């Protein structure tokens, strides 16, 4: 009986530590470089998300979070949470060349979609992504990391 209880406890601990968190991030870049980020998280566990310093209070629904020096730690309990914020520090411009960067959270799976203005001419994308052009919204960049 003791061996069975110990085995059961080990299985429960192993299952708890094998939690997965998946993310779906959508970024909307405006003509002025302002970026709206919507990050949907699903799963169980604690996720650290770096947030630019010009975001004093991110909006979060569906979970609890603690602000850290670099962003937030979000606690998920087999649920879905949505994190939203706007920042002007995720893009920079040098001459006519814009650079956009996003601090990618360490998740088990992440899909990232960037919506860019139609006036932007894409010259380089790193890492390699799928680019879709649309008439109304501009460009869409899709990248997945599994």
What does the model show?
It is built from one helix and ten strands. The chain has 146 residues and is mainly beta. The chain has a single domain, classed as Immunoglobulin-like (Sandwich), CATH 2.60.40. Strand 9 and strand 10 (138-145) form a beta hairpin. The longest helix is centred in the N-terminal third of the chain and has 16 residues, at 2-17. The chain starts with a helix and ends with a strand.
Order of helices and strands: HEEEEEEEEEE
Radius of gyration: 19 Å
Describe the global form: globular
CATH architecture: Sandwich
End-to-end distance, in Å? 41 Å
Task: Please give the count of helices.
Answer: 1
The number of distinct structural domains comes to 1
Bin the helical content: 10-25%
Could you name the CATH class?
Answer: Mainly Beta
Poorly predicted regions:
1-18
Task: Lay out the secondary structure.
Blueprint: H1 2-17, E1 21-29, E2 35-50, E3 59-61, E4 64-67, E5 71-87, E6 91-94, E7 97-100, E8 109-116, E9 130-134, E10 138-145
Brief summary:
The chain has 146 residues and is mainly β.
List keywords for this structure.
single chain; 146 residues; mainly beta; Immunoglobulin-like; 8-stranded mixed beta sheet; 53% strand; disordered N terminus
């Amino acid at each position: 009986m003791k061996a069975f209880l110990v085995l059961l406890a080990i299985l429960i601990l192993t299952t708890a530590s094998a939690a997965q968190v998946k993310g779906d991030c959508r970024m909307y870049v405006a003509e002025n470089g302002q970026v709206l980020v919507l990050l949907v998280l699903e799963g169980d566990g604690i996720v650290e998300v770096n947030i630019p310093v010009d975001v004093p209070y991110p909006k979060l629904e569906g979970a609890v979070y603690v602000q850290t020096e670099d962003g937030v730690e979000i606690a998920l309990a087999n649920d879905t949470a949505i994190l939203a914020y706007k920042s002007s520090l995720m893009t920079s411009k040098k001459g006519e060349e814009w650079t956009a960067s996003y601090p990618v959270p360490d998740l088990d799976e992440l899909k990232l979609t960037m919506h860019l203005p139609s006036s932007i001419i894409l010259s380089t994308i790193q890492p390699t992504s799928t680019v879709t052009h649309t008439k109304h919204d501009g460009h869409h960049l899709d990248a997945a990391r599994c």
